[in-house]
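Problem 12. The chain below contains 388 residues. Write out its predicted structure in token notation.
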Amino acid sequence: MAHQLLDGSKAARASLTLYLIGIYNKVHVDSTPRQMKQPPTSTVNRGKAVTLDSAPERPRVDVEQANLFYGDALGHYSTWERPDVIVSDGAYGILGFEGDTADHMGLDQWYEPHVEAWGRRAKYGTTLWFWNSEIGWAAVHPVLERHGWRYVNANIWNKGKGHIAGNVNTKKIRRFPVVSEVCVQYVREVTVEGQSLKQWLKSEWQRAGLALRLANEACGVKDAAVRKYFDQGHLWYWPPPEMFARLAHYANAHGRANGRPYYSFDGERPVSEDEWAATRSKFTCPHGVTNVWDRNALRGKERVKVGSNGKAVHLNQKPLDLISMIISASSEVGDVVWEPFGGMFTASVAASQLGRRAYAAELDSTYFQYGVNRVRDVLSQTSLPISR
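Solution.
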């Protein structure tokens, strides 16, 4: 009898245990965070200085080398020339325009379709300049990396104390006043058969069955080729086109015959000097410039304003000199610049003035019309009256 009771107790305990495990699993599964669709946003409490009732007369306006499109850039990327430079100045998560997010939490989803499209259309040597707040950039950085953009440098626009003009209650906000924005430089992470360029350079040499030291002989140096071009850490150097051509020629002349061609992107022939040169983004740093840009917030005649009170048409218009600097540093005359979130089309103005071809889009009717007029005005063309 006691034995039967003991068995019964064991069975009861086992049943209770299974029951509790079931409850735990149900709670655990049900409490797993779910990816919720972001609700539509709007410019709550961020009223625009002006809203035009009229729609743009044309969905596309070309001014000199600036090609300006009315609408969402997602609908135009496939028709634009492939970019050498992309200047992104979109959502900040501050309800700055119709469609902006309320905070940084939704920025990754907001940007991802654009970032994915940029990756599809970019060249090997395309440079991306990503403007945002510090927390906004942090939220979008994983998306950029996921779609093949490699971080290079974070640049800080310091607007100075005049930007806050003493009108900040630090006891209330409980932090230091913010007078900065970031402009982060990215380049494409070029890969060949799933390998980075530094990995591919060394693995191709090894695939040819050549001793690493022979790379020095191929390049006509004592030891720099192996030390620089085959390093797999942060000391790796991108080989200049002439040195790359020497490595490729030597590997194809002296490597295993059954593995040729070596250093080929298409499996048909070795990469040429020009093709190799195109794998590296362009960059020339102006003398004395660092990654901290001390420049007052945009005021004066350059700011596009409206009405007798002189309110700014756009809350986030960028200084032409800063935009000109980054475009000039990362491109050459004749290159293509994209400005997906046009606003007042500052990047398009800068690109056209610098002899580059610009493609830009703006989905807000008011901003588009004022932006087009600004481009015409700055590029010394006839400024058409805006009907309100």
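Discussion. The chain has a mean pLDDT of 89. Students who got a different answer should revisit the alignment rule from Section 12.3.
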